[in-house]
Amino acid sequence: MKMPIRFFTDEGQSTPGEVQTGLTPRLPPEGGQLPLNRRAGARFPAGTRSTLGGMIERIHLAKPRGFCAGVVMAIQAVEKAAQTEAKPVTVYHSIVHNHTVVDRLESGYGVHFVEDLDSVDALPQGGETVVFSAHGISPAVRERARALGLATIDATCPLVTKVHTEAKKYAREGYTILLIGDSARHQEVIGTRGEAPDATIVVGVLGKTGEGLADPHTVQVPDPERLVVLTQTTLSVDDTRRTIEILKGRFPALVVPPSEDLCYATKNRQDAVKAIAPHVDLFLVLTSTHSSNGMRLLELAEAECGRSVRLETAADLAGVDLTGVRSVGITSAASTPDDLVQAVVAHFRALNPALEVVEEGEWENIEFREPRKILPTQALPRTMQ
């Protein structure tokens, strides 16, 4: 029997077969930052930050937090496929970078996860339908799936697909692409670079170094007059802006696409942390270490609050020093289920029944269209060619 994944919110339990995110998402005004119900500090009485001991009195939950529209779309695509396909569904790479989500799909739906499409044939119960993860894939992976005779469902986030489209466009026009990323091995970077491998140089976002990453201060290009910058969608907004400024200073002809590649969910979640973090004693970020957007939230919380801790579940609170903590801010990565956040709140409420919990900011309001199944004999959609 296939069991539905249940995600919980502060409004209650989801219905069987549904993924509830707790989100009522809304995009920020064009060119502006996420609007907040009350600006930073408005709901933070004097003395909110404390150096005294004692139990936690107040929790500030960041809005938005948790699942974004792309994650919701990807998870629902896997769930629907698992419910309708005759054989178990295979997902190429983790559908999103969160262990809890992956574990629930494996145990509740019998979904297989692979890092190599050639291993699909070795699965015990087939797996002729493969779902591509939200992070995107390269054309080589898509073609390999077709060669293996696999039906595919592309759950790539549409905002990642937009960057892929830009990469192909500029490569055709003879531009060198400077792709800003936090790791050359991140699935999103691999997928985007795969769209134009001969034209792309991966540049480390400010402060990031590693194998395959060029330094923005020293990167060399074949023609500085035909140069464009694209970015991974889940980076620090501030670090990305500074990196582009460095590149623009070195290469004045650098083209910066008018529409930002950083996704609305990344920016909104970072803005929400900035509004809360300076006013609390401790900031908790629920995220996997594999989540780029989540780790950027953790870095931002540390910079703005001075005291941040990463959690995967409420069980991780056992090792957290709460000395001198009266107020706590909480957020979560775009791939973290909100029931994990609510479990942390419940932990603190059990210690202090009078705990005050306030939510700061506004949810987003956006949905992405469900991806369709493509048989190996079908032509690729125009946007994928």
TrEMBL record:
It is an enzyme of class 1 (oxidoreductase). GO terms for molecular function: 4 iron, 4 sulfur cluster binding; 4-hydroxy-3-methylbut-2-enyl diphosphate reductase activity; metal ion binding. It holds the Pfam family LYTB. Keywords: 4Fe-4S, Iron, Iron-sulfur, Isoprene biosynthesis, Metal-binding, Oxidoreductase. Residues 11-23 have a biased composition (Polar residues). The active site is at 188 (proton donor). Isopentenyl diphosphate binds at residues 97, 135, 186, 291-293, 335. (2E)-4-hydroxy-3-methylbut-2-enyl diphosphate binds at residues 97, 135, 186, 233, 291-293, 335. NCBIfam families: ispH_lytB (TIGR00216). This is 4-hydroxy-3-methylbut-2-enyl diphosphate reductase. It comes from Deinococcus arenae. The gene is ispH.
